[in-house]
Design brief:
This protein has 389 residues and is an alpha/beta fold. It has two domains: 16-45 and 288-388, Aspartate Aminotransferase, domain 1, CATH 3.90.1150.10; 51-285, Type I PLP-dependent aspartate aminotransferase-like (Major domain) (Aspartate Aminotransferase, domain 2), CATH 3.40.640.10. The protein has helices at 16-19, 21-25, 47-57, 69-83, 98-109, 125-132, 153-160, 182-194, 253-266, 273-285, 287-311, 337-347, 374-388; strands at residues 34-35, 92-95, 115-120, 136-141, 143-145, 148-150, 164-170, 198-202, 228-232, 246-249, 325-329, 350-351, 353-354, 365-369. The strands form four sheets. The protein has a seven-stranded mixed β-sheet with strand order 2-10-9-8-7-3-4, with helices on both faces. It has a three-stranded antiparallel β-sheet with strand order 11-14-13, with no helix packed on it. Strands 1-12 form a two-stranded parallel ribbon. Helix 3 packs antiparallel against helix 10 (273-285), helix 5 packs across helix 9 (253-266) and helix 12 crosses helix 13 (374-388). It is globular and about 60 Å long.
Amino acid sequence: MPDFSTVFERRNTHSTKWDLLEQIYSIPDASDVLPMWIADMDFAIPSTIIDALHKRLEHPVFGYNIVPEETKLALTNWLEKKHQLKIENKWIFFQQGVIPAMASVLDAFTEVGDKILIHSPVYPPFNHVPTRLGRIVETCDLMEINSSFEIDFDDFEQKLSSGVKAFILCSPHNPGGKVWTKEDLTKIAALCERYNVLIISDEIHADIVFKPNKHIPILSVAENVNNIITFFAPTKTFNLAGIQAATIIVPDQQKRKILENQALERGQMELNIFSLTAFQAAYEHGEPWLEELLEVVSSNMDYVVEQLTNKLKGIKVPKPEATYLLWIDYRDTGLSEKEIMDLLLTKGKLALEPGTKYGKTGEGFLRMNVACPRQTLEDGVARFIKALS
């Protein structure tokens, strides 16, 4: 049975989440600070993945490996079953993560000085990666309507028409937990087609969506799929960030050839034996674990929403449609970002993410990761309440 209740000691395991707090938050000692910031879970991965890794370890030779077609087939079957998206094995490229994948695609299909469009607020690498590659980042600010994000399509089209070369879509949206509708995605695809803008769609959170919402891959609604490159990965779904595995889905043959040549020029290798093993096992056998995970995370979210909104003035916590991340609105408290972060760290001993990390439009918000055992969650909520009481 899946284990979502055991609290594992993660300190001193070379964990970014637990072992970099002093560096990330500029504090001398974080031994008593609870981290609920970066997007990895404090849950054990599915036992079926561990079993698959153990089985591979039984063979004592770890020589050069190829990517078996069964590994690609595991993904194609998953996407068709879970998201009604049919893709071909030849469309699949492997990368060490969505961020390296984004960098490769931007490097291959845009030039230094090109305009890249993103929404705001959004996952920070959407800004950092193109900027470090010498591209110019344009932002289309999302509109906040009824505690949910909506796209300002007038502004979106205006930005597209100004010479933008690529648009990076976050679907479902991080940090807002928004599941874009079919109408949203169809309009995005049509506008990008009209202005000859490449769509780079990060769909890493596609599997963590709560009913009745349903993730719709943009590839499934676009008239011209050759204008779209999509990223999928098992790492968010199954808590496998450390195996460093993601896929780039490229329907267009010419674009695939460009990426193939780029990989050859850089001496880029395929995924290692253990990444491939975990990847395949996740998509072949991970569905029952995922179904229970969704129930646990949804229940955790309900708990945080109820506790914080009822016990603290000026705090709003809308329940997201996707992800295991809460986007907490503290604007009515009158506190500045520095003030609330200082209170959380020094009084509450709790590490959350400041909203401005996701862009200027994130001011007045905090991001909180609730993918943890209930014991840890209740501790985190108590710390939050203590900090602001």
